[in-house]
Amino acid sequence: MKSLRIPDLTIKQKNNLLIITITLAASIIGYISYRGNVTLIETSIDKAFRVIDSTERVKLKTATQVASNCLSKLLLADTVKTDSSAYAIFEHHLDDFRYENDRTGYFYIYKGTKCFFIAENKHYQGKHLENKKEYEQVLKGGGFTYGFYEKLGAEKQKKLLYSQMIPNSEFWIGTGTYLDTFKSIEEDVASELRDEASKTERSVIFASLILLVFIAMIIYAIRQSMLKPVKKIVQLTDDMAVGKLNTYEYDTKDEIKPIFTSLNNLINNLKDIVDFSINIGQGEFNSEYKMSSEHDVLGESLLNMRDSLKEAKINEEQRVKDENIRTWTMNGNSNIADILRKNQSDINILTRETLREIIEYSDFNQGGIFIADEDDSDTFNLTASYAYNREKFISKSIKLGEGLIGTCAIERKTTYLKDIPNNYISITSGLGGANPSDLIICPMIADDKLVGVIEFASFKEIEKHKLEFIEKCAENIAATILTAKTAINTTKLLEMSKNQAEELASQEEEMRQNMEELQSTNEEWHRQEEALNKRIKELEEKLNKD
What we know:
Elements (H helix, E strand, L loop, with lengths): L10 H67 L5 H12 L12 E5 L2 E5 L13 H8 L3 E8 L5 E10 L5 E8 H63 L15 H25 L15 H46 L4 H16 L3 E7 L6 E9 L2 E2 L5 E3 L3 H9 L3 E3 L20 E9 L2 E10 L5 H82 L1
Antiparallel strand pairs: 1-2, 1-5, 3-4, 4-5, 6-7, 6-12, 7-8, 7-9, 10-11, 11-12
């Protein structure tokens, strides 16, 4: 069986255990108080007995000494000084004298061991003392002893006695008090003490019951004051477990208040986390979150998450931007390639259409293409000009090294200017307006041969990818122009070769006809030669005959 441990108990069980413990403690204290009260009563009775005994002794001794002194003076004043006169003095002053209400407090006079006078129990007069110890105390100067005497005609009772000599006489005086009187007084005192103790006991019991009820009420109030906030804490934590974030204002300034303060701080932190998470979920990665302390692991994780998401967003935006730039560049190159492919046969159309496409696609406002002259490579002629969505027909030639165009041709490097002189741009729109702010001049080079220079102006800053796009277009245009020029030259050569071949064929036909005519002439000449030879032979034969 598993042992029960106090830490394993619920708060309610702990409160019940506390009530039981306090009740047992109060009961034990009450019992101890009761036993203590009984002991106190017994001790008080004992002390009371001792006080009574001491008081009685003082009373006996005092009464005896006073009576002894008085009798001594009376005896000294007696001029007769006989036993009869002494007896008369004793009888006159002591016979009716009693210092107790029950007349037991009387004196007796002894002369030696013989009773000379006694106020009560007259039969003792003339008899010798039975209690020798009493006389011994008298001889010692006086003292206390015990003896047995009849009590007003009753049986003998034990009696506390005190005796001493009467100064300046041969008599000694004694008196005493019966012990049953002590007991009566002691019983009365004990009865009174017991009554008081009983009252005290009842008061203690009543007070204990009231105290127990009061303690129970206080414990119940404390229990409720403890259980109520604990239940509220449980409710708050349960609400937090299901996602409800409601704070609770706890006004009491006790040890539980810091718990509510911590819970409220936690709930407020969770609310801040929720708001922060919502902002992050909506893409607001610049949202701020204040960590509750340097040990706020969750807050640090959230901030790291925000920074990671922010970085991821930046990377994604950059990726999308790069992808858009790649797509833009690819589409632009595709458009330019398509124009170049379709217009290779006419350089003027090629440069005009290419220039227009680049300006419109790149959102420039104007531009121009300068091509190196066929006959003079140091001269660059403006073959195409486009501004404000219109083709411009401008005749312009620039020498190598002249102005920005000529400098770019010499350096063979792209020139990018952000502050264009006001008088640099000569092409304006029909509507007027400010001059462009940015200018790019790019050499058109292919196979290490400078084909021309291309120029663009823009009201906006020309971005890097557009610069790279223009440089690539300049290279493609240069290559296409070279190819086009080569094709044109090839066509011219083919045409020349064709014309030469046709002329050669015509000459060959003429030669053939001449040959045929020559052959006919030769054949005719042969015939004539043969006829002449035959005529000669005939003439020779005729001559020979003759």
